[in-house]
Amino acid sequence: MSGEPDEEKLEELRQKKMEQLQEQAESQQGGAEREAAQQQAEAQKKALLRQHLTDDARKRLNTVKMSKQQFGEQVEQQVIALARSGRIQGKIDDEKMKQLLQELKPESKSFDIKRR
């Protein structure tokens, strides 16, 4: 009789191990799908920017992203939103990009120190 409970415990352990392995496999598949979706979204974003920005404007935007990544991404999102809404006529050139950057630039806080 002592053999039967051990076999039951062993079978339970096997079942638990199989469930854990299945969960790991499912989570890895989900991660790969998310990564593929992110890559596809990034490719679409780049294609849209390439379509609506001149080379100089793209270079300026990339320079801004290198120095201030969060602000650069905000500008990218703004350009994409303008493109999708149809408010961009033609391509955004370097001058228009400068204007857009100036408009979206966060207010800088300045301090005036007066000496007596």
UniProtKB/TrEMBL annotation:
Record's compositionally biased regions (Acidic residues): 1-10
DNA-binding listed as a keyword: yes
Transmembrane segments: none
UniProt KW DNA-binding keyword: yes
Compositionally biased region (Low complexity): 21-42
GO cellular component: cytosol
InterPro entries recorded: DNA_bind_arc (IPR022889), PDCD5-like (IPR002836), PDCD5-like_sf (IPR036883)
Positions of region (Disordered): 1-54
One Pfam family, short name: dsDNA_bind
Bias kind Basic and acidic residues: ranges: 11-20
Any one Gene Ontology molecular-function term assigned to this protein's record: DNA binding
Keyword line: DNA-binding
Assigned protein family: Belongs to the PDCD5 family.
Name of the protein in its database record: DNA-binding protein EA473_11890
Protein source organism: Natrarchaeobius chitinivorans
